[in-house]
Design goal:
Elements: H1 4-22, H2 29-38, H3 42-70, H4 74-109, E1 113-118, E2 124-129, H5 131-135, H6 138-158, H7 164-173, H8 177-206, H9 218-236
Antiparallel strand pairs: 1-2
Helix pairs in contact: 1-7, 1-8, 2-8, 2-9, 3-6, 3-7, 3-8, 4-6, 4-9, 7-8
Length: about 240
């Protein structure tokens, strides 16, 4: 039977999971940006976000259970989580910057230009031409597209859920192990549900946004958003 204290901690875990995700742009901006740039369908975007969010939460849950099993002081685990958070934010910064530069290079390389064609009958006309659209192979596009989800997943596994261990897992452990599972599950569900909700709403809103001539800069813009979200986490503590 679950005690009242565990129910209170579970409610606290839900609130923490919701606000922890809401104020952390790195929890959803990378998926929104990459989905727009790579034209992922919503189902694929949510699947990638779900798996990344699950890895994000489970890495902290696993660390918390190890700490409980070995009797490690919560202060040491907080230090480990802080190190992981620092590493994850720098990984986001590095990935975003690299993707921004690649996107700019791609946009410049793919700059539309005109070709003049003269026919045997004397007719002369122009064609608007983009090299990359004309020459890139489909299997090359798929290979590039398949790398990005794994990069996002790896960075998310590094990222910690800072409030989970000290604020809900350790207090729940004073009651029983089942209580720890309950509060950890409550936190995980709230975190992942909030991620998916924000991504769904934002993707729906962006579906009405047409970039027009800026379409070729979509990858660069995605990289810039990820880069800025990483900076926000690292230097603003979001």
């Amino acid at each position: 039977m679950i005690s009242n204290e565990i129910w209170i901690l579970a409610g606290t875990a839900v609130a923490l999971g919701f606000f922890h995700t809401l104020v952390g742009p790195d929890h959803y901006l990378p998926f929104i940006a990459m989905a727009k740039a790579r034209q992922w369908p919503l189902r694929k975007t949510l699947a990638i976000a779900f798996l990344s969010g699950l890895g994000h939460v489970l890495s902290s849950v696993l660390l918390g259970f190890i700490g409980l099993a070995l009797g490690i002081a919560v202060g040491k685990l907080e230090a480990a989580e802080s190190w992981r958070g620092n590493a994850a934010s720098w990984l986001f910064i590095g990935f975003g910057f690299a993707y921004l530069i690649w996107g700019l290079h791609r946009a410049i390389k793919n700059k539309p230009h005109h070709h003049v064609h003269a026919h045997a009958d004397g007719e002369v006309h122009e064609h608007l031409h983009q090299h990359e659209c004309a020459h890139v192979h489909v299997h090359d596009q798929k290979k590039k597209a398949n790398i990005t989800p794994w990069i996002l997943f790896t960075i998310f596994v590094f990222g910690p859920c800072e409030p989970l261990i000290p604020l809900v897992m350790y207090p729940a452990a004073k009651h029983n192990l089942f209580g720890v599972f309950v509060v950890a599950a409550a936190f995980a569900i709230a975190t992942i549900a909030t991620m998916l909700g924000i991504i769904t709403a934002s993707s729906w809103g962006l579906s009405f946004v047409k970039l027009g001539p800026l379409e070729r800069y979509a990858h660069a813009l995605a990289g810039a958003m990820i880069f800025l979200s990483g900076l926000a986490v690292q230097f603003l503590g979001l």
